[in-house]
Every structure is written in structure tokens, then in C-alpha cells.
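Exercise (ungraded).
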Amino acid sequence: MMVNTLFLPELREMLATGAEEELREFCTALHPARTAEFMEGLTREEQWKVLQYAEPPLRAEIFSYFPHDRQIEMLLHENEKQVAELITHIPADDAVDLLSELPERRVEQLLALVPAPDRRDIRRLQTFPEGTAGSIMTTEAACLDERLTVRQALEKLSRQAERLETIYYIYVVDDTNHLRGVLSTRMLVSSIGKPERTIAELMDTDIVTVDAYDDQEKVAQIVAKYDLLAIPVVDEQRHMLGIITHDDVMDVVREEATEDVQRIAAVDPLEDSYIRTSILTLARKRGMWLGILFFAGLITAFALRGYESEFESYAWLVWFIPLIIGSGGNSGAQTSTLIIAAMAAGEVDSKQWWRIIVREIATGGLLGLFLASLALTPALLLAPSAWAATVVPLTILFVVLCGTFSGSILPLLFRRLGWDPALMSNPFVAGIMDITGIVVYVTIARAMLG
Amino acid sequence: MMVNTLFLPELREMLATGAEEELREFCTALHPARTAEFMEGLTREEQWKVLQYAEPPLRAEIFSYFPHDRQIEMLLHENEKQVAELITHIPADDAVDLLSELPERRVEQLLALVPAPDRRDIRRLQTFPEGTAGSIMTTEAACLDERLTVRQALEKLSRQAERLETIYYIYVVDDTNHLRGVLSTRMLVSSIGKPERTIAELMDTDIVTVDAYDDQEKVAQIVAKYDLLAIPVVDEQRHMLGIITHDDVMDVVREEATEDVQRIAAVDPLEDSYIRTSILTLARKRGMWLGILFFAGLITAFALRGYESEFESYAWLVWFIPLIIGSGGNSGAQTSTLIIAAMAAGEVDSKQWWRIIVREIATGGLLGLFLASLALTPALLLAPSAWAATVVPLTILFVVLCGTFSGSILPLLFRRLGWDPALMSNPFVAGIMDITGIVVYVTIARAMLG
């Protein structure tokens, strides 16, 4: 990442001379993301000093755009009281994520200085397991009573607005915090002309909600389906617990996409970013699958030994082994990846298995014929006779067909069994095609060459 | 997908008896997405009839939740005047997408019936190439004059609110439509207490914008970076052209993730969903890359022929070929996929190449030692002597190291050359490792066995 050095000398000058007015101006003039960018070249201590010139809510917002490692360092090493004040202004879900990376002692120190209501929010969020709706929700939602009029609601909302992460939906709750309805700010604003109508008249009672223990991937799918800006999280009794906002959903979508890609390449999904994962963890998450694939590979070694006599009589057959098993593996990996991606996007489901398999066999036939035609000339060049040479294109045609067939049937089967179809990784398909390819090759060679 | 049949008999009954009141109630009672779901089992004609009982804006919203194919059928076959009315209520960007799939003649017929301002919007959006910001923007944004007071702005916004896709940012433009500032509805609502302040005093002039010709992937990155709900699209003179909303950005993120996955499996990205892509197109988009990989595979055939004498003297070496090249290919594919995904997520860039390569060589060393230790026993079983057997684990160690090294250096190189690193597909890495693996194997065997 490029470090933005444009403002650095001026910022340092301002800090040195204690130019309060100018530092305040710097904090408020730009979008908080840009403010954070301009502070990139400063040391942690300097950044922290500059931050203190921003009002606490803005301070928390600028802080949210710092790199994750820097955020952790600040929470660890800066003044306890200032850090605690910052934490009260960070959305509770983000605060929980950050605190989870600090040592237990520091967390207790800091939380002791956080006002009780915020501390309660943080404690409650900490109880939801990672990957659930509860763990990514924020407890700060705009909640109003249904008996309010449009005028009263607007006034109340106007007092809450600055403190809340999002005010684009207003949730209507009764006295015991049961969710009764939802109202968009758009609806409220467009009712300004009828200030005496009540929220109860305007609100929508058909509310899309998620349970606090629902999987975050399910949450993302629902939000995408209904094109929501935020979704309320409730417990079993429909008590309003919090909301999940569109930006957290976007993070989930990105995270799940990355995990799928990693699974497809036979890497156990990393919990952290690639660059922050230790080499030992990387080796473990990869070695696990490489080990499994290795034993699949061993079968080929024993199969080839079993076919020793065939390869001794026709030594030239050996030359085409990598080409043949590669063609099968590649076409199979294409198929399984296409199907895994289509299932993840919700475009196909396992009930369409028949249609998928027919499509893949047809595609495999076309691809097999194409690769077989490419293989004919080199086979004629390397094989002892034209008749013998045809073994190679014929094998490639069959192996590509087997590749697309198993590449399509296995993710479908995995889904049916309730497993993640992305476990049907490219290397796994390739491993299956290694064995299949060799068996098909020798069978055809035997039949044709005797 | 499950067809929801709960309401079907009632709906058909209502249509048969012309129960206007009840059909209106059905259209308004639920979230439009659910209304569309409950209509799934109806025929196209029945669905269209039910839709006519909803007010046009709601009608367009319910329509937006129908499956894509059904939408196209309706635009093709239903009454022209009704279809044209529907089109005026669909956001212009979605209308352009739908119209692009109709025959030219039908488009002209329909657009002739659409009011001139909406038609102009559609015509203008049609000029932006697919994949650009312009092609996914909507022209319906809340635009206000900076001279308005808070009170006036709220009133004006309340009249616009129902018609607009989103009102969560208010864009401030001058008389010639130059973008001057932006104001969140949250800010406006929280200023209700000071109704005489002007928009000019409240608005933010540091606006994050995108150019209409910017790539949609860039738009998605900016929106994610600044956590925006919508981003304004401007031309070179900073004229306000439209906005891109968070749900369109979510679609872009999903689309780009799917494309990356397809590229990683050596499939040229599909323009349409997997299930809607014709078999011929599928075969073409896959055959292209399979053909290229095939020629890489051919090199292995000629290499193996070149090593004929080695494999004749030590026939057992042949048995381990698939295992060895598979281990190299798998570990290389893991590395390249991890790096491609990390680059796509913006976690690493090619300036960190040195750190990445060092990490991968270290990881490769660990993985290589692990697989080599697994290979020792089978090699001892199959090789004629203990000394000869050590060729196999030694080769695996080196091949895995080569795999992680080339898996890391190639995506970095691709990025440096300005290519898409996802072109460094798993099959491509596997192809490179096929050749490398064989060369390393024979070199080590020669050195050790003479």
C-alpha cells in the first residue's frame, strides 16, 4: 500500500506547535477514510494525539479506517481512559472483534472503564459464536414506539440519529422489546405532510428477521434476496436484539467467497488474512489436504506397478500418461468449479442434478472430441503404428468424459450429503482423474493392442 | 427451487371471481419479494393479471423479484401498453439490462410508449459499455439545491421519496447539474431542530465520486472502502449523472468473485449464469484453455520420450510419476490460489513480492518434508533398493518447493505485467509442475543411480 505523505510535514508541525484549531479542522474537513489515509505515515503515538482533536464519534469513525494491526496496537498501548472512551463509540460488534484479540487482563481493565450499558452490550455480543448473526450484529438500532405520531417520531429520531450506525429503518418495539413492525425512513419522510398519523398506521408488520444463532452466510443470502440495507436480529421470543447492516453483510460475502476459493484449491479456510497467517498455520491447513491427496496419488503408483507388463511391451504408452491424466483433471476441475460457483450463487441446486449431468456429458463430449483431434498428430509421431496411435486420442475422449461426469456428480453428491460442495476441490478431482485416467488408458490399450 | 403453493388455489379463485379488493390486499400485504414467491406456481398470464392489481411502483417492485426468464417472457408477450407502463417504473439501469435481451423491434415498440424523460434516461444508459459504472447506475437520485433550508429540503424530499430507489444520500447540485456536495438523510433528520439552516451549511463538499466509464470492480472497492450506501457517478465536468446503490454493488462483488473462481479453474468467465449458458458456449469457453493446457501437456510427452533410456533402465521410476507431478501441482495450486485471493481482497500487493516468496519457500519446505516422509515407506516397498528408494522422497521435497515457488512468483508477475493474476489458474500451475516435476525427477535419479 502506498503511504500518503502529502500532509505529513504539516501534521507534524501542527502537533509540535499544538495548533488546536488546525488539527480540529484536519479531522473534520475530509471523509474519515481519507483522514485516516493522510495519517498513514505518522507513528502510532502521533496518530493517537491527532485523533484526540476529533469529537469522540468522529474519532471512532476515523479509527475504524486504520489498519487492523494498528488498531490493536492502540488498544494495547494507549492511555486506558482514552481507549475506553473510544470503545464506547465503536459499534459494539466491531468492539467485540477488536477485544477478542487483546489479552484477557487488558480487556478487563478497559471494560471496567466503559459505561455500564455499553459494557453490557459488549458482554452480550461476546456470547454469540463466531460466524453467527449475533456475532456480527450491532445493538444500536433506531427503535420507536408505535403510538408515536410522524411528528414525534421525526423529533425522536433526530435526537438519536447522530449516535446510531444507521437510521434507514426504524424498528417498532413494544414495552417488552418485542419487534412489532418496521418502517423505512423513506416512508417516514414521505409522510411529513401528514404529521399526525401514527407509526402503527405506517409500519410494515411483515418483517424479514434472522435469528441470533443463524449462520452469517444465510443472513447474507436473505439480505441480498430482499435487497435490504439492514436486517433485524431477534431471539426465539421475537425480542429485538440488534441489526446487521449492509456493510457487515458485504464483508460476509467477501469472506465467504474467499473461503470457497481456498477450499477449491484444497486449502482449509484461513481465519485471518493470508499475509497475517503464520507459516506454521499455513503449512498445517495445506498439509492436511495434501496428505489426503498424497494417498490418492499412491494408488496410481500401485496401479502402474500392476500394469508393469503392459508398459514394458509398449514403453511409448508411458510418454502420454501426464497428458492424459492432466486432460481429465483439468476438464473435471472446470466442471466441479462451475457447479460449485453456481450453487454458491444460488443459481442451481442439487434437485437439478439430472439436467446438470446431461449438460456436462454433452460438453465433455465436445471437449473430448476437440482434445482427441489435437492429440492425433503427436500420437502418430510418437507411436510405432497408426493403429497403435489411435489409442491416445480415444483414451483422451473417454477420460475427458469421465472428468466432466465425476466433476459434476461429486459436488452434487456432497451437497446432498449436507457437506460443503467446495470440498470437492480441484486437486481432489485431479486425483480421482489420475487413477481413472490410468485405468481407462490401459484398458483401451489392452483392447486395441492385445 | 421450491415452488410455494400455499396460496395458489385462493389466488386462482380470486382471479376467476374478479375479487378486486382481495387481490389488491394480496399485493400490498407482504414484502414484495414474498408476494412474488407466493405467485411462483401461477402461469405467466395469471401472474400478469395479479400484478395489474398493484399500484405501478409496487407492481414494478414485485416484478423485480420474478425469475429473470419470466421477466423477459412478460416483456416479450404481454400487452404493449401495460409493459411500457411497467418499464417506466423499473429503475433505468435494470430496464436497460432487460431490454438488452429483447429483439430490437420489440424494444422500439415499447420505448415509443414510454414517456420521453424515462426514454431519454434509458437511451443514455444504453450508451455505457457493460462493466462500467455508467451501465449499473440509476439516474433517479435525490437532488436538491443548496439554497434550500432544512424545512424546505425535508418537504421537497418527502415529495420525491416514493419515486426514488434510495433517498439515504441527498446530492446537492447547482443550476447546471454540477455536483456541489452531499448530505446524508441522517444529517438532515438530525437537523430538524434547526429548520432554518441551509443545505449549503450542512452539506459535505469532500465527495467520493466515480466516473461513468470507471470499471465496476473499482466502484465496488471504493464503496466497500468508504462503507457507502450509494456513490454518485459523474462525467469529466463533474455533472451528476446518477448513483450506484449498495445492492448493485453487492451484485458486482458476487459477479467478480464468481469470475475469479472460474478463471482459477481455467474457464473463460461466463457472461450468463451457468445453467443458462448454452453447451456450445460452455465448450468454447473451456476448450480455449484446455487447448492451451494440452500443448503444455504435450511437452511432457516429448520430455518423457527424451528420457526413454532412463525409464528403461529403471522401470519402477515410472510408477511414481503421477504422484510426483500431482504433489507439485497441488502445492503450487494452493499457493497461487491463496495469493490470487489475497490480491483480490486487497490484502497483499505485488510490492510485497519478496515477503510472499520467502513465506512460500518456507511453507513449501515444511510441506515438502511432510510429503517426503509420507513417501518414504511406499518407495522402500516398490523400489529395488533402499538407496534407490530415496530418489522418490528427495524428488517430492524439491518438486513441492518448485511448486510453491512458481505458484507464488507467477501471479505476482502477472499482476506486474498488468494481467489478471487469476489467469494463473490451478490447471496452468499443474501443467508447469508436470514438466518441472519430470525434469527434477530424472535429474535426481540420474545423479543418484547413475
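Further reading is listed at the end of the chapter. For now, observe: The mean pLDDT of chain A is 88. Chain A has three domains: 2-131, 143-252, 279-449.
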